[in-house]
Amino acid sequence: MEEAQRTVGRQSVTGMLLALVMAAVPLVAILYATHTRLPFVASQHGSGIDSMINYTLITVGVVFIVAHLIFAYFIWRFSRQDRVTSRLASTKAEWRWTLIPVIVMILIAEGGVLVIGMPVWRELYGTAESDNVVTVEVTAEQFAWNVRYPGKDGIFGQTAPARIELPVNPLGVDPTDPNANDDLYLGPELKLPVNKPARILLRSKDVLHSFFLPHQRIKQDAVPGMVIEVRFVPTEIGEFEIACTELCGLGHYKMRGVLTVMPQEEFHRWYTESTDLYFPGE
Ligand SMILES: [Cu+2]
After folding, report:
1. Do 143 and 39 fall within a single domain?
2. Residue 35 C-alpha to ligand 1 middle, in angstroms?
3. For each of the chain's 282 residues, which pLDDT tens digit applies?
4. Among the four residues 127, 160, 167, 200, which has the most C-beta atoms within 10 Å?
5. Domain around 142
């Protein structure tokens, strides 16, 4: 009898400790989460993305905490019991406790997507009006970004992979195409005017890359053979990082570019002057 009581005592101490560990996990996670900060927002839709991130973190965080606390309670409660029992739930109870969490989580997750996520999605991928938009082509390759502007005519010269020749013609532009004459090439430098919609046409020459502007909350894969359009409005003047966020090869880490957001007049002056100066093949 005494021996049995000692065993129960030991079990409840172990149970208590385990329960404490379980309860501590979400607390440490919360502390970590409150110390993690996103870079400041420098685009119109950026705060919408942040709302979606926060909504997801908070809803999933609450479930995470509640689940751990229930788990901790069960460990503590049943480690004090002197005999092992098995209680089976009825089929009805099993169905109920399976369906309720599923429905609640669907409502929470999809509700957030519809209410917070969809408007941001529309801003990024919707078919907004095309005038008053600055169109830029960004072509990714191992391991660089190639920025091209259409020039005064607003039309990009034709490209073909067969015409790619390094280092003179990295995009494979057709030199006989008259639309190519005023195209402007900037390498890894992307320049945009502030508070004006930008339309980025993303392409890739080789493998999957991902165009990432952390401050503008833009992250979009570049896929070989596809032209993917992203729209956003930069709202802060300054220099920002362009990173590749798809592990695209050994040089992935050095695939950096610079986004310069300038006042509108300054951008237009620079653009007009530059398209007069630059011609492909020169
Ligand atoms: Cu890459």
Report:
1. no
2. 29
3. 455 556 656 667 888 888 888 888 888 888 887 777 889 999 999 999 999 998 988 888 888 888 889 988 988 888 877 777 777 889 999 999 899 989 998 998 888 889 999 988 888 887 666 668 899 999 999 999 999 998 888 889 888 888 888 888 888 888 888 888 888 888 899 999 999 999 999 999 999 999 999 999 999 999 999 999 999 999 999 999 999 999 999 999 999 999 999 999 999 888 888 865 444 433
4. 200
5. 134-277
| Ligand 1: centre distance to CA 212 (Å) | 10
Helices and strands, number each (H, E), in the chain: 5, 10
Please tell me whether residues 102 and 208 are part of one structural domain: no
Among 279, 89, 47, 73, which Cα is nearest to 180's?
279
Answer whether 180's CB lies under 8 Å from 137's CB.
no
Specify the number of domains making up the chain: 2
Q: Supply φ then ψ for residue 10, to 5 degrees.
A: -60, -45
Question: Distance from the CA of 165 to the center of ligand 1, in angstroms?
Answer: 20
